[in-house]
Structures
1.
Amino acid sequence: MDTASIPPFPDDIPTHPLLVVDYERVKVGDPEEIELLWTAATKLGFWYLKNHGVDEEASGMFDMAAETMALPMEEKMKYEQGDDGMSFGYKAAGANAVDASGMKDTAQFINIAKDDAVAWPAQARRAYPSTVNARMDSTIVPFIEKSLAVNNTLLEVFNDRLGLPKGTLLQKHLREEYSGSESRCTFSPPIMERQVIGAHTDFGSLSFLHNRLGGLQVFVPGAETWQYVKPIPGHAFCNLGDAMAIFSGGILRSNLHRVVNPPGAQGALYRFSLVYFTRPGNSVVLRALTEESPMIAQAVANAPDPTKYNTGVTSYDWFTRRIKNQRIKNRKGPETWMASRGTEHTELTKVETS
């Protein structure tokens, strides 16, 4: 999609004003910028990130997504993700539920494992369409490598602010360990009054999102309705996922969000979005790091329900449970949808009707 032809986000649509964090200033350790990042991460868990240096690679990923979605359906389905709890590969529209009623989603995905990008040209996790392979060297590997660097820098900041020993969080996200970390390109048609992707928290640790059109909404704590967040050129969205909420004993926030049709004239367009998900290594147990940080220990001790920060499961188990129970083919009833949920717990019931 030519960005010059995209209609502007409507001025008359209310939006939530996310904090803007300058990645270059965070990277050099600027204390004011780090404080701003910490505020964003603990209050809402969403923020804009500027000066991240990934715009060129992101543009190439949008091109790759368009090329992949233009393939015949028969060809794309050769690389379908399947129903066993892994998300790498192609996902057809309607393969996932967006709510407890079993309404089907309208989005197509092409997801590429971090492990396959790191191993390229060897195959680590699965095969991909020719359109993906053709852009591995020029586009996909550089995008994933740069996204890893950005998210790892943010992890180090959170590590220090949580009072954890140096390298604790990076050790839980080792490059060489298989994980659910992946890039995802999403493609959805203009469909009014439908959720493209239902209300959820993210599965992993950090999400690094590039949007050209509106449609992303957040549910702000204390609010009564969903609020749009406006895409800004040159600014990525970042948000925290379940794993960081658990590791931190709830100090860091994994916030509910969803995707709906873009507002105004943007709603008539096909919507592409791009995200890189950093997730813990498959063997990492999701638990609050109370033994490593007095700050986290205190947060868990003061929590209304401390048990939710000791899941007793690995990142792999958490991830596959959530993915598997979203799939329409695995649906038995509303309980299947609830089994796909993360750290949002009872918040979900309140907001799904908003």
Note: The longest strand covers residues 271-278.
2.
Amino acid sequence: MTSLLQTLAPGFLVAAPSLRDPNFDHSVVLMCVHNDDGAMGLVINRPAPVTMGDILSQMQIEHARDGKVDLEQAAMVGGPVALDSGLLLYQVPPGTASREDELTVADELRLCPNQQLLREIGLGQAPGPYHIFLGHAGWGPGQLESEISQGAWIPASLVLSLVFETPVDERWEAALANEGLSPAQVGTFRPSN
């Protein structure tokens, strides 16, 4: 395994301004998995036109009506793959044991497709701060490495506050700033078609 593979998950990929794919324009991708078989991540700065309340209602999941659940919290479009599938990303206290059906992205960050966990969140029993994602980003073997070498992505360190505290529309610039970069330094030129 190369050092590049060892550093991308957990971490972020910040889209270079030249990346023209509308699925990833000015996106920040939380890398969840990256190995010889490919990579999987979640775009953390693309709100979906669907709220937590919409999802709970559509799935007929009871929810607390005492303000413990932010029914207006927007879901996120995690990427163009499997848009009809939901994934819960949530923060847990350090040292928390993993659930059987979750992926440990980082010590304090977990990913889970479990509807039972969605029910718990609906009842106001979230394990910590969370986002629900519709779809994800995926790359085949070697594909992401090629895109990085072509300058489409800027690898960046994982900063949990960027995922749960930074306003969505500020995450791209904040991810660059965490690496000591500004948008001007990575370029704002967009080639014409």
Note: The CA atoms of residues 39 and 144 lie 7 Å apart.
3.
Amino acid sequence: MNSTEITASNDAFIKAWRYWSDRSPAGTVAHLDGVIAPWMNHTWPICNLSFLADEVRDEADLTRRIEAALAHAQTRQLGWIFFVSADFLPAALRPRMETIFARYALTAGFTMTGMASEALLPPRRTLPTLDIRPVNDAANRSAVGEINCQGYHMPEEWGIEALNVAPLWETPPAYGYVAYLDGQPVSCAKTVVLDDYLYVGLVATRPGHQGHGYGEAVMRHSITQAQQACGLQRIVLHATDQGLPLYQAMGFHAITPFQGFMLPHEE
């Protein structure tokens, strides 16, 4: 993958989380020494992220940036994640990336892969018929929080508190939807207009309802609504390992993996 796409994927990750931070009641965006940290300042660690601002020159440069991110986090006393693409490191440094972070008690957690698509492929199967509703009230905002936390095995109250915030869902630029089955919310997705592309996030399905195409159905609906409203075709996202196969089948190509580093008690 070329460096331009890798840089664009890193920038999209930052801009997406800045979108959240800028619209959260306690959100902040810190520009540190080679690090950008958009934080919602919430208990849920995924709400508080740090990223490399640009490519790392050498080991001393990397350690300085880690120390800057740690110093910022220590003033907050909240769970957080430092997402790093190994492609932003010199080739000789990449095999030792985890070892260097471990010196600061930051351990490798889950990975998110930057992906993009210029045009989605047709569905592989007939998608289910669902009652898909816009996220325009407290009930549906809370449903998105519940579904995401259930899908990723986190306390539901974290998601409800973080996401039941009206400015996060204003249309435009956000196109958020919840899919209902038999009157119960089962899946959700959100598409946001960022610059000249669309960014998809918060795709999740309740345990027990996964594997039926609900996530794909609500995600495609969200993307379609955003595209019809703004005319943009390029779609960007960052996929968990769980979601990666679906997105590849939908026509997204992988750009670069981002390794998340966390303190052990925050995993």
Note: The longest strand covers residues 107-117.
4.
Amino acid sequence: MDPELMKTVMTKHTTYKKNFKVTNHIVQIIVTGLLGLEGKLWSKSRTTLNPVFQLEKLKKMIPAIQVSCDEILSEWKNLALPKDDGSCVLDVFPYLESLTSKVVSRTLFATDYSKDKNLYVILKEMAYLANQTTRMADLPGAKYLPTETNRRAKQIMSEVRKRLTALIKERAKEISSGQNVEENFFHVLLNSELAEAHGIKNMNDLFGQVKLFYFAGYESTANLLVWTMILLGIHQDWQERARQEAFQVFGDCKPDYEGLSQLKVIPMILNEVLRLYPPVVELSRLVEEETKLGEYTIPADTLLMLPIVILHRDPEYWGEDANEFKPDRFAEGVLKATNGRPAFFPFGWGPRVCIGQNYSLMEAKLVLSNILRTFSFELSPTYTHAPYVVFTVQPQHGAPLILRRLK
């Protein structure tokens, strides 16, 4: 497992292509939009959507992220009120999923989360259904079998398509009439050459893009936040260091972009969490023609698996403490952490690197800065450590923590 070769595979995306020969029919339904495109259409889509995640656009999203964070923290405060010590035991994972879902609705789609809430719930259910069908996915005609999973998957997709198609048409009408002038994801997508080229009539392209960002936009950040809280619940020294930094930079004020860019300890912690629990444990690429990769000759129609999580824990690149939580390994940046070798790919690499990585990291820094200045936390005795892969790495049994309000 040579990280240089992995980097080459991710960089040369026209030679090593996304694997669309997926046998799991539910995965095929979920993997749409940018994830499901190749060649010129992918390039066009990527170019169209890149401006949504540029720095100036990200800065404008901060108030919406803060509002979403305030709402969740207010719920936690109310739950902690009855106790004399201001504490409560809480599975924080569903709250963090709710928080990041609200952020996606507000920042990317300018929609009301209360109307979108059930959409996130059924998309999450779809991911679990995909996981359940993995064992029988290779059976010929598996998607036509009259199983309860297949029936439910069809019901969900029918509901998702109905909701998102109505939303797309509604937003397109608002934009064309000048009612909605806010330049968010929807605005960019519906006014793009991509939409003009395919026409609003071709709802499949737009539906695929919107569905992808509803699904991927909340899940990766929620998982990053929950693993961060779990690990800081264990490592109280790092929790305190992060809290001191948050107070030092922001005091009692709401975080702004300038302050977020000054943080040092919190980004180190987030990088270490991404190393240990990357959103995606592996990537795959398909070689359609015989290709030379380093000293290896790769036959045509070979599927290459890139084991991200194994590389992230390889002692050869990270030292004998590779399985330990040590954020200070990132004190001088990512390259220094691995002695200049590329061994850190939490969001992929190259042209197809995750388009929303800066969006996710900014949101995580802001949310964590707020949580740390409001609560201290530790693992509940009921916590069971069980990383579980659905589409991303999640705590299978949730994240019950003991939260205590700071005085």
Note: The longest helix spans residues 203-234.
